[in-house]
Amino acid sequence: MAADRTTPAFRPGEGRVRPATLIALLLAAAVMLAPLIWTILLSLKSNQALVGNSGAALEFPYTLENYWAILSGDQVFRWLFNSLIVSVGTTIGVLVLCSLAGYGFARLEFPFRRTLFVFVLLGLAIPEQAVILPQHQLFAALHLHNSYPGLILPGLAGPFGVFFMTQYFRAIPRDLDEAAMLDGASRLRIFWSVLLPLTLPAQATLGVFTFLASWNSYWWPLISATRSDMYTLTVGLASAQMNYAQTSGLGFLMAQAVFASVPIFIVYVLFQKHIVQSMAGTAR
Amino acid sequence: GSSGGADDGKIYLQRFFGECGAAYGTATDVAAAKGECGIITSMINKFNAENAGAPVSSNVVAWPGYPQLSAQFAAGDPPDIVSMHGGVISDYAARGLLEPVEPYLEAAGLKPDQFTDASRMAATVDNRLYGLPWDTHGGLYHINTKLFAQAGLMRDGKPMLPRSAEELLAHARQFKARTGKPYLLQSLVADTAAQTRTLYTYLMAQDAVIFPDPLHIKLQTPEARRVVNYFKALTQEGLGTLDQDTPAAIAAFLSGEGGIYPTGTWMIDQFQQDAITPGRPLHGSYAVYPYPRLWGKHAEFVSGHVWVVPKRERTPAQRAMIARFFKFMTAHNLDWARTGHLPAVRSVIESAAFKAMPHRAEIAPLATIGHPLPGYVQRQSAIERLVGEEVGAAITGQKTVDQALADGERRVNELLAELPVVSPSSPPRRSASSRP
Amino acid sequence: MSLELRNVRKAYGETPVLDDVSLSMADREFIAFLGPSGSGKSTLLRIIAGLETADAGEVVLDGKRIDQLHPGARDVAMVFQAYALYPHMTVRENMAFGLRNARVPQAEIDARIAQAAAVLEIESQLDKKPAQMSGGQRQRVAIGRAIVKHPRLFLFDEPLSNLDAALRTRTRVELAQLRRRVDAAIIMVTHDQAEAMTLADRIVVMNDRRIQQIGAPMDIYTRPANSFVARFVGSPAMTLLPASLVPGDGPARVRLGDGTEVTTRIDRAALPSGSVELGLRPEHVRVASSGEGACDAEVLLVERLGDRTLVYAKLSDGQEITAEDAGLSVVKLGDRVRLRIDGAAAHLFDCNGNGHHAQVTDSAA
Amino acid sequence: MSLELRNVRKAYGETPVLDDVSLSMADREFIAFLGPSGSGKSTLLRIIAGLETADAGEVVLDGKRIDQLHPGARDVAMVFQAYALYPHMTVRENMAFGLRNARVPQAEIDARIAQAAAVLEIESQLDKKPAQMSGGQRQRVAIGRAIVKHPRLFLFDEPLSNLDAALRTRTRVELAQLRRRVDAAIIMVTHDQAEAMTLADRIVVMNDRRIQQIGAPMDIYTRPANSFVARFVGSPAMTLLPASLVPGDGPARVRLGDGTEVTTRIDRAALPSGSVELGLRPEHVRVASSGEGACDAEVLLVERLGDRTLVYAKLSDGQEITAEDAGLSVVKLGDRVRLRIDGAAAHLFDCNGNGHHAQVTDSAA
Amino acid sequence: MRRGDRLASFGFVAPFLAIYLLILIYPLLAGIGLSMTRVDLFGGGSFVGFDNYVRLAGDPVFHAAIFQTLLLAAMIVPILTVLSLMLALALNRPTRDAAVFRGIFFSSSVLSVTIVTLIWRFVLAPDAGLLGEVAQGLGTPPLPFLSDPTLALWALAITTIWWSIGLPMMLFLAGLQQIPGDIYEAAALDRASRWTILWRITLPSLRRTLVLVVMLQTAAQLQLFGQSQLLTAGGPNGATRTMVLFIFETAFWRWELGYAAAAAEILFLLIVALTLAQYWFTMRTSEAGNGR
Ligand SMILES: Nc1ncnc2c1ncn2[C@@H]1O[C@H](COP(=O)(O)OP(=O)(O)OP(=O)(O)O)[C@@H](O)[C@H]1O
Ligand SMILES: Nc1ncnc2c1ncn2[C@@H]1O[C@H](COP(=O)(O)OP(=O)(O)OP(=O)(O)O)[C@@H](O)[C@H]1O
Ligand SMILES: [Mg+2]
Ligand SMILES: [Mg+2]
To answer: Is the reported ipTM for this assembly greater than 0.85?
Structure first.
């Protein structure tokens, strides 16, 4: 009787990872992680120890003083709060708008539906810098600068979410709509009670991406929220830097980077399970 | 949203220099503060403590803050006092966005000639003063005296500075030969200011006219060619570094990897910290001087920080408060000098207290030999980038010197030719709508 | 309950799908739409349900035109081919959904669900989600969801086609029982003739955008209106052989391609002139052990069904014919056999495809 | 070609799926694996193909152990249930793919494809992609892809289950023809007993991880080894009624729950003691028009198949029974009927489920 | 469906469309108007017709920016696509380890560009950087990643690839999970080698995902900005100035709004043209055999 009776893998995702693949993966993961670990190590060193010698990051002693410095800043929690309001607001807004529009484009009939969809997709080609100044003028005319709506609204116009949700809605069997129609459900009710719950994985994914983009956005908050009590975390942390911070405040700078990333890491970890699953419909 | 308040005299101050509420959030002891951020924060705290109702509300912006300021102007809601580099004033002044500050100085009992020439010129456009002069900053040779000694370039405990171009080359070769390290640490990567500073400085030294009129630059001149060719040759010979950006160059200087790091006044404090810290490579071996005279006369391109007053409707109480604040700031000019920048007030620079600070005697001449660009030149920061990019390309050998200078001249002239023709007195497009 | 369709037409773009379809249906009747794929069965069903709009024609339920009503307002319930259960709801919620929309009081909802669950024997499944159930269970839930609405008309779109053979038979029995217990009419779409024959009171055979025949199952089996119906209904299918009429009097007599002559009981006078096709059900073509039969054939395939054996064979002129033999038949593939044709039970189809049948009902084999 | 499986075992994790399965197969034989869902048919087939590895046991092809060989090197071809055609390749490319991998010369590839296409009548489809074809066409392509490889053994995993009824019958004929034209053995997995009976030389009935019976189709139909086989083979299924042996001599005589007594032709001596079940095929339970029958029953469902009618009924003790009647039966749902049981054709199953059959072969109805 | 229905249906897309029109399309159109004027940040401009476009046509700096943008996209998109595909292939399994690896490769995507460039400056800078230290350890002179024009482009490309590998990897994983497993078994029986399976089965099945990834990435990389602004400031000698950086400098440093707007419109058209060209190309080639 042969000793090795393991089933060979003929379907992808079965069987053992070959050693060569594993080594390549480990190397690639090291390349991915090394800069991140380096950043964390730097953030754990005092600024003074790093001046002119970033190699000191590899040696003891480590300290949390940079994080304390961030946390004891007057306004850090205000900025954190602003960022949360803006990111959560944008995320909710995008989910609502894109779910509605995705359902509309995927399921309903109205004049110029296809044309409008293509028109929306064109938006993927519009660079932020191409519209930021007219946008700024527009928001000035509407008196929206230095306000939460002013920070949230531009994040709602992105076409990717509409594309994503439309594809996802299209993948849901039409039977369900029809069954609900026969069950006497109104269009809104079909959308709300039948289809929307089925898009939860997609909502999670789009939500993560939107939250991430909103959290990291820099240029718009920079020129729209000019009052420090309206800064988002990215802008606030940038304002807290001295010129030449890369030399004399390196540890602090890196601690800021880590600090600003923690919330999104948390969001990612919470929702990552849904991400791959829900992308399945996108590439159709 | 509005940054304006009622008629209680509150004023909004917007500045860069970083945020350090952690260490200085409530500090009012200006003398005890350190660093640009610490000193300015304590100063404002102190002013607020001394005046009823903490009238100054400050807003820290990410360096350099001009996109935000422009945005605020465009939205019709600028602050009351803004930190600004001298070279930028002409842009806003030409658009009629700034108030001349003579009335405020007068109200504060200050006279323009209390300020040094260099600092006053930096704030002057069309013979009007557009801000409270605050300091003068310019390029300096930060020197590692230990390496200089090793290279045999010390005399009487002081580094030997070249007195001509030929001498600098000789020193550099000798330095390289004896220490094996570059003589000059240059930040040529992602930093255009350093190159421009060098070029402007040595053109001024040769009495070359850089901007014959508001719409033209002249770079295709023998003087310019001389300067660029010289630094190119030096760099190509390996006497100056090629691959460093600013943080890398600073790090190299701090770890004793080169003889001279030409950069601004703002680094004195940081380097001095290392110089007095035992165990640091720079310990006890730091000296600093203005750029040496290489050609012509001893002159240097400088700039300065200025506090400007954007044009908008203000109550008399607010105006009074601005004047009061200016007066207070001027009184604390010496404290600011601890950052390394040259104070703007003549009496301070001449004071014993100032001269007693490390290296200050050596750099004091900047106040007299320093010249900013003429006030009629707009878009100085954009021009600085263009010129720096071309000079950098020439020094690193990516372009021929002639080509680089020709390109630089053409690009700057094209930029200037596009300036919209506006009279300086025309009002901003949106008036201060949010103020009563 | 009475449903009437009047001159319904439907086209998708340029493609006509239904062409002047009319139909009326009695109270509590069970009708099956039978036809090949693409014949428009689902479309017709969906027009009744209101999921499609007819281009022309009327749909009348109990004397009231319903074609302009919202599907939910038509008092019909539909069971979808793939069940279309709401995956995120439990069985109970699936059933309650339509009732909630109709604002039925909660107590009433609970009662109806309990009753339906009892009928369908899914009481223990009520708090499961569809993904946790087997195909057969899901189907019962789908039926349950229809039942609780107490509709006047049930619509089933191929309710059994997703089930395996064993389950299909069981569910067929269940459907028949259901039909006795609910006070409503039923329309079922199928392309499985056995299903239609077993369950329906009347069958509507559809093909090529039109209704081909409407009738009771046995009518359709014994007196197919045309050659399409003849071929489509009955498994294995009726053999149709080209033939020529032999002149003479009395019942029609035809000659096959291999020369065999068959005497039918069909009235010669009713036949138009032109070529005809002879229709023979397998049970009327017997493998003859001795020589008394009518024609020779070569066996192509032997299908042993246990109780009887089907023999697919080729006549000497190349025409294929299906015959029946006893369950323990010894016929083998490749054998040459003699076939005895029961002319009394034969059908004739004229050149327009219309069927002509024996004047006296033929008896079973 | 000869295939032998010796003591094959397989478990997925803790769950055993195949338990000591042995089987040997002759040259050019057509074997069907028949069994309910989950009985391990596909697993066994996949072990032969090399897509799964047995935990123990040997797979021997022509005297050579192949269980360690790569699937591509085993000289077997498989037709998958969902066809598994390569969607982005044309039909031609689908067929050529395996040959290219085996470095067959292009001319030879072309010839084999042309031949297979002719056999399967898909010449005109060769440049289409699977998405453009109907289910039946796709299936022929899947078979074509197997044929061109000239394998020694064909493996079919439920090749017909995705087709509709009409197409299934046609394809069944095609498979039978194919079998005559290719010089290879065939194993087919199915859970449709009619399919297995029609096509296979021998049927392997599987259930519960084990082979229940191996035999020719008629053997299995007439002499099921145990009650599982009896119930599973034959459509509609054999009725099994609990019964008690009536003491006495001669052939076994049993009494049903409602008191009816049935005399079988089964040797009483071979039966162990204990309770028994009486097995009756529908064709041996006839609806009796007059009173000469044996028992009373109430009709639950009438399934009119055209040529005959199946009657599902309930005896007075609640046991369900299936009977047959003529095609034009007048029996209706809810009727009370009398049923005549043909005891000579009855089967008995002892308390271990083992089957006991009449000593003389019973004749067909 | 009926008329009222259509209106109601339109109601579902209307909220998004309204915001989209107001916040993206109106500014885009306003940008077109702006591109016809000579105007600074504070208005008061004059109409100049197509002068700005004519100027762009003759501006070598803009030409270089276009060229470099295209070059960067051409460097990044293929590598990113291939690498993320390889990762997806390797990580398309249900194990815990694979999930951890997926998390690792996605982790960089959550960082902002500011942080990414900050980190990578420390990796790439020849003196103080990680690569510099490695080079020193190996005894070779470190590569001047930020000062050599070609290497600087690679520095941006590497940084970008590191930063954005997560999303395409996820898309490919999703695509892979949609390929039915049985065709792999069929291929095994067809004696296909690993390589043949990759080229003839997996890749063709991933075609739509591949097109999507390439199109999304092309559109994204043609808008590359933060990396070049923060890492190399467009240098050395403008060698890494991308179109968006050009637009940014023109608007925020030079205050030439009209000129910046004209460049932005050109960029917009370029992106639309390139992505549509990709779309049409792939649709045309797939239409040939696949009559959907
Ligand atoms: N939405 C549609 N758009 C265009 N053509 C359609 C549409 N729905 C159905 N058809 C076409 O209409 C015809 C009838 O379709 P229908 O679904 O009613 O057939 P069916 O009898 O139910 O067939 P099946 O047994 O395959 O379900 C078919 O030819 C089909 O291709
Ligand atoms: N990959 C697997 N992992 C775990 N269990 C499996 C796997 N494949 C099959 N099984 C289990 O093994 C048993 C036999 O499965 P198999 O597919 O061989 O059944 P089958 O007879 O082909 O049934 P069907 O008619 O439904 O195809 C089933 O209980 C099934 O759940
Ligand atoms: Mg249908
Ligand atoms: Mg199976």
So the answer is: no
